[in-house]
Structure formats: structure tokens, C-alpha cells
Amino acid sequence: MNSKSFLNSILFSAAMLACRAYAAEPVDAGAPFGKQLLVQEIDCSKDNSEAMFTEYPKGVSKVETILGTPCRILPNAEGGSKYFAYRVGKGLNLKPGTAYVLSVEFPDDKPRSMFICNWGCETARGIHSGTTVGDAIKALYVNHNPESLKFPLSGKIQTWRELFFLHDRFPEIKRPRGRETRPLLPQDGFWVIIAQLKAENNLESAGAAVSKIRLFEITDTGALAQKINYPPAELPRRYLFFREEMADGVIAQGHKPEEKLPELRGVANPVDWYEYKVKLMKFLGMNTFTKDLLEFGHNQGWDSSKYGGDKWYNQSSTRTLWTDIIQMLAKYPDFYVFPYYEYAGSIGQDKNVAIGNQRRCETLKGGKDYTHIEWCHKTNADIIDPDFIEDAKKLLDVTIVENKDKAKFIGAWFRPRPEANPISFNAKDIEIFNSETKQDKKITREDLQKDKALLDKYYEWWFKKRRDFNLALSEYLRKEVSPEAVLLYTTDSSEPGIGLPGSIVAKGMKNPWEWKTAVVNDAPEKWEKNLDGSREFFKFVKSVPYDKVVAEDMYLQALLEKHGTWGSYEWQHANPWNDPQNYKDKPGIMLSYSFNRLYTVSSKKAFDAFRTPSGLAIIRHYGLNENDMNDGKDPILGYFVADVERTGPYCMIGEARAFANGDPRFIGYLAGNSFNRGFPEYVRTFNAAFLSLPAMPSKIIDNASADPEVIARAFPTEKYGTYVGIVNTGLTDKNAIEVSLPKCSKVTDTVSGETIPVKDGKIKLSMYPGQLRALNLR
Asked: What is the CA angle 764-775-593, rounded to 5?
């Protein structure tokens, strides 16, 4: 062997050591996966040319030893968005439709924020630790409601793990939006990308850092399903679900033959893609399947033939998709179904039939357009007009009632987007107002414009009419489908969720309109300096103390506040606000409570305001981060949308505090991308405990623990003892802490079946942050 060949041999061997491929070697993949087949391991501190290592900008990443472990990092002192990436699984016999686990090891030494893009299933997830915000502080399109709090760091190497089902085809580094070629096949491998936002949008982060990336193959997905021990059948149950927004482009196809080519889709058969989600839900311990059947009012895959086809609702290019999904769900009889509708009136080709196209709603000024968003101006539903109740019932008939014997429907979820269900002041609406409120004289639009007190009466009447619209649909479902069916109505049309407006956080201050984005934090002086460091960029971004927000119940104020508006627009009428007082005594209908940051789950009063006879429904709104991964005008990862979660057990701290302060029956997630969770061991534990508790009225047990961060709720039943949920709402472990319980002789963990020793009415538990334990007392 000559010297050149010898050198090449050494270099090849070194590359293979840095990027090791394994021949079906069982290795511990970590909780909750156990031993699985290790397909590949990438040591990120090495060269990794065999894994087609690439980075942007070239040469940007560095290798440093952190916590005694070599890691590749992306500096965050300055500059634009950055990434480094590897082609994972190339030539390693990857199989489409097979379950894999992608694991990413990272140091938890300093506050860090990063995005992990897994193009094997076209999922992007952000994670963040310590005082970082996670989402872009100043996003391109929306207000992310940033929050910075001193979350503890473990000082250890942590692991993010994602269960996923491999797609048929994958994109290159730049992910396409919708129907574009996905050129890579399983034998080519798929890109795994570690990325971060530009420095200004990523304050407090020491930069993305990763030590190792591993890919495992799962041999038995069914064995990983989280077992749910529901309460007895006669007790009401709880529900966990998610809806995805910018996700289904991976299976999108048009009406034309050239728009149906398989190379344009990540998964050839759309039903397979939805079945992957069902399997993921079973793994995570979620029990309710949700799919959007209307998006911005448009048909998303169901057959409208019964009421006129294209004349009523334009037919989708995949008109049998919904019934095909229902048929697939028959394989999972333990699942519930909860369809989602962005209803804006029927949208079809014949205005005499498709009444949403008629745009009957009118502004207070007498116009047709409520906002500056032109693409929202096409359709709307005047929901106080009886015609739209009948129109919506037809929708429920063809999508739910006709399938009621094929799946367990729990109701319907309506969420209008801007201008879809606005407050209308057309002649018919005002005539109905005059008739129903028996005005002394006939009220006109001009009267409403001039008289604030009279306008407030109109608002009061209109909101009750909106409630009656929801009640009519709920009663229809209760008659035709199930006597327990619910109609959930989400007024919050935003992706990140309702923010804190300047009218609340800067009340009484000069120019409160300048508070367009409030960074809620527990270090106000530091954040003032952070924002002052780039004051031009953060011109309308302000620091607001966390304690002040919570003490003054600012978030409840925001939930009940009219939408701000400007100029000649009528945003306050385009997006009518929450009116939970009209739902307090009405079974079968609910307004959802939006949550995201910790300040949104810190008020018992706020949760109680939204509680109804059918329970409390809370919806987690994620920030999109849409197109925020850019370098100037260059979208360095193509179309980018990503949800963000905290690291480790803190990924469930929001749900934990919501349980302590509000005890929701429904927990939903409005995902901006394909839904997944990166720390499943904590998610599964919470979900299993949550679903094992009955959905009945509960009370906090006073002084159950000497530690005020450990909260216990009691759920007494007539025949099955008392259920108790105990949750650690704090940010630190609670070791061998005593909890006092109602009188009992036996305590059983409802998830594990374990009997817990009880002495003098007390038990001892050790709990990590955000952990929920569910018990039954006899």
C-alpha cells in the first residue's frame, strides 16, 4: 500500500469512527424506549464528512468541551441565523413507515435555545432552557408573548428524544412549502439540522450546543403505547388532543394530474400520515384525534355532495380523505374524535347556496372589510342569522352525524379566524336586534355609531346570540350523536395566543400603544438593558415584571379585552372577544381558555371564569416562528415553522400549574407544525395520570402539604371512593414530602396500580417539577 492509500485509509477509518453505523445493535435508547436497534451515532465534535456535514455560514460552528463532553456549538454573540446539519441514515437500510427515535444530546450548563429539524418526518421543534425565551422575541408576523424566567439548569448532559415514523421521501436542507419536489429517498438518508435564530432574537442564549446525535429503529411500536387506566365507565372522562396548522403540505395534492405526482409528497398515502399521528398519540398517552375539516373556511378533505357539492362547498382534491381516516380509526377503537372547523359560512361556486360567499356581515361604519388582511375578505358567517345555523348543521351532518356509528365523536371544535364570525351591523341584524330587545324607537346604524351605551347594549345582545348559535349546534349534536357532545368555541384566532396589550401593561403611562410586545420576566433591570442593547430593533418591545402581571391578574384582563384596532379598521368587531359569563350555566358549550407562558396559568380566578357545566377546556397556543430562520431575505432552511418547548421536566410545567389552579377537563394543542414532544418520559407520565382521574368537580385540599408548591385536588365519588391529583408546581424536586389526605385506609396509584403506604392519613411522595400523581382513596 502506497503512502497516499494508507493516508486515505486512516482518514476513512477516522470518519467512520466519528459517524458510526451499527448492524442492528440493541442499545439503551433511554426512557421510555429501553433497548432498541442503534442505526447510527454521530459524534458532533468530529469531522463527519461521511454524514455530509454542512453548516451555515461556512465555518460558523466550533467545538468546545462543556461539562467534560466535546460539543459542537453555534456562537450567539452576534450575527444572523445559523445551523449545522448531517445527512442521517444514508445507506443504512432505512424503511419508510417504520418507527425510529432521533435522540440529541446537549449540555444543560447555561441557558440555551435551539431548533432541531428532523426532515425524516418534516418536523421542526425548538427547545430552550434557563432564562431564554425560546421563540423569536420579535417575530416577523405575530407577537410571540415572550417570557423569561430563571428556570434551574441541571448541570448535566441532557437528551432530547423524538419518536417518529419515516416518510417515503424527504426534502433537501431547504424544506419546500406544499407541493414541491422532495428528492431524497430512504437510501439517501435525511437531514437533521441544529439551528438557531439571529442573535437579537435569541437573547440570553449561550448558543446551540450538541454532543451526539443518534438514530434508533423501534422493533415493536405497539409495546411503547402508554397504557391508560381510565376511571370506571360511568364517570366522565378527560381528553387530550392536538390540531396542526402548517403541517399537511407534506401530503398536499391538487386536482390536476401533475399536482398528484408522488415525488411532491413526503408520504404517498395521506391516510398513512394520519395513522402515524395516531400511533404517536398512543405513545404519548393522548386519547382524542382531531383534524381540521375547514381551514380558513375551506374544505379540507370531505365530500360535500349531499348538499350541492361544489355549489355549496368546493370539493377537496381528496374528497374521501375524512371517511378514509374514519375507517382507519376503526383499528383504534379506544380513540375519541373531535373534528376542528374554521367556519366562515359555506364556500362554493353558487352564491345562492354557498352563503358564506355572500359576505352578509357589515361593519359599524357600513363597510364590508373589517381589517387590512385582504385574503380574509372573501367570506364570513353572520352567526346571528338563522340561515347560518342551518348551514353549519349541514356541515356537522356530513362530517360527524353520517359517521357517528363508525367513531366515538365527543363533539365539534369551532375556531373562526379573522373576519370569519364578526360582529355584524347589517340591516337584517339591526332589525333582529330591534325586534328582540323591544326598543322604544327603531335603532339605526347611525344611532349605534353615536351612542356608546346603546352600542354596549348591542354588544351584550350580539354575544348572547353567538352563544345561542353555539348552543344550537351543541343541541343538534346531542340529539343526533351523543347526549354528552360538546361544542368548543375558540375566539382566539391568533397562533401564539392572546397577548398582553399596552392598554393593560402600560395603563396610565405615556404612549401605551408602544407596548406592542411585552417581555414578561423576573429580572426587569437586566431585560431593560437587553432591549436597550438593540433599541432600534426592539423599538416596540418592552420589559414587564412577571410578579406584576400575576398580582394584577393582567392575563384575565387580556382574555376579556376588546381587540385593539387602528385607522378605519374594525379589528374589535373582526375578532369578537371572550364572553365566558354567557356560558357559565349552559351545558354542552364552552369557550376555550388560551395558555402558553407561565403567567397564563397562574390565576385560579381566570380559569374559574371559563369553567362551564361541561368542564374547562384549555388550549395551548404555540408561536409559529414562521420564516424567522432567515439571513436577510434568504430563508436558509426553506419554509420554516417550529413550535418550542422547555427542556426536561419543565416541558410540562404549564400543564401542571393549569391542573393545580384550574383542573381542566380538555387540554388541546394548536401546533404550528407537525406535533411532537421531545421529552416524552415527562409527557407520558403527566398524560397517564391526567386521564386516569374522573372529569368531575374538584376542590383543592387545604394545607395538604407544608410545601405550598405541592397542590392536591380531591374528586369525591359516590361509589368509587375519592380520587386525588397531587402536582408539584415548583421548579425543583420535592423529596419524601408528606401529603395529608382525606380519611382513608387504602391509597392506590391509578396509573401503576401500586399501593402507597398511608400512616395517620399521610403519605410520602418524591416528585420532580411538573409531575402529576393520580391516586384513589378507599
From this structure: 110
CA distance 177 to 139: 19
Q: Which three cell numbers stand for residue 22?
A: 451499527
Model confidence pLDDT, tens digit, residues 708-747 = 999 999 999 999 999 999 999 999 999 999 999 999 999 9
Q: Which residue shows C-alpha cell 372573501?
A: 378
Contact 274, 320 (CB under 8 A): no
- How large is the angle between the packed helices 452-480 and 427-437, nearest 10 degrees? 90
Domain boundaries, the chain: 11-244+266-286+595-608+615-692, 511-552, 699-777
Beta-carbon contacts of residue 108 (< 8 Å; ≥ 6 apart): 129, 153, 154, 155, 156, 157, 158, 647, 648
Write down the pLDDT at residue 11. 41
DSSP strands (E only) in 187-337: 190-196, 209-210, 212-217, 239-244, 288-289, 292-295, 298-299, 336-337
3-state secondary structure 399-416: HCHHHCCCCEECEEEECC
Given a cut of 50, whether residue 4 has pLDDT beyond it is no
The 3-state DSSP class for residue 339 equals coil
Spatial distance between the Cα atoms of 77 and 532, rounded to a whole number of angstroms: 16
Closest CA to 303 of 319, 317, 327, 290: 319
In angstroms, what CA-CA distances link 647 with 685, 712, 768? 15, 25, 13
Cα dihedral sign, 68-70-76-77: positive
Q: ∠326-330-336 over CA atoms, to 5°?
A: 75
CA distance 538 to 201: 10
Find the range with the poorest average confidence among 14-18, 21-25, 332-336.
Answer: 14-18
Contact 120, 493 (CB under 8 A): no
- For 503-511, the CB contacts below 8 A with 24+ separation are 503/561, 503/564, 504/554, 504/557, 504/558, 504/561, 505/542, 505/544, 505/549, 505/554, 506/542
Q: Give pLDDT tens digits for 49-99.
A: 999 999 999 999 999 999 999 999 999 999 999 999 999 999 999 999 999
* 338: Cβ contacts below 8 Å, ≥ 6 apart: 239, 241, 288, 289, 290, 409, 410, 411, 412, 413, 488
Cell of 661: 389552579
Query: What average pLDDT score do residues 176-191 get?
Result: 94
Q: What is the pLDDT of residues 293-332, one digit of tens each?
A: 999 999 999 999 999 999 999 999 999 999 999 999 999 9
- pLDDT band per the 50, 70, 90 thresholds, residue 179: confident
C-alpha 477: how far from its chain's center?
A: 26
Q: Please list, residue by residue across 185-202, b when 16 or more beta carbons sit within 10 angstroms of its beta carbon and e when fewer do.
A: ebebbbbbbbbbbbbbbb
87-121 pLDDT, tens per residue? 999 999 999 999 999 999 999 999 999 999 999 99
Q: Are 118 and 243 in contact (CB under 8 A)?
A: no
Nearest to 154 by CA among 601, 646, 547: 646
| Closest to 456 (Cα-Cα) out of 468, 443, 467, 469 | 443
So what's the pLDDT on residue 633?
A: 86
Is the CATH code 3.50.50.60 the one for domain 699-777?
no
Q: Mention every residue, 6+ apart, whose C-beta is less than 8 A from residue 258.
A: none
773 bridge partner residues:
726
* CA dist., res. 346 & res. 395, Å (int): 9
| Range in 9-23, 312-326, 381-395, 751-765 the model is least confident about | 9-23
Give the predicted TM-score (pTM) of the model: 0.96
Distance in angstroms (rounded) separating the CA atoms of residues 333 and 578? 35
Neighbour-count burial of 306, counting CB atoms closer than 10 A to its CB (0-12 exposed, 13-18 middle, 19+ buried): exposed
Query: What is the DSSP annotation of 582-632?
Result: GGTT-TTEEEPEEE-SGGGG--HHHHHHT-BTTB-EEEEEPP--TT-S-BT
Cell 411532491 identifies what position? Answer: 264
Q: If you search the block for the grid coordinates 462543556, which residue do you land on?
A: 66
- Which residues, at least 6 apart from 706, have a Cβ–Cβ distance to it below 8 Å? 737, 738
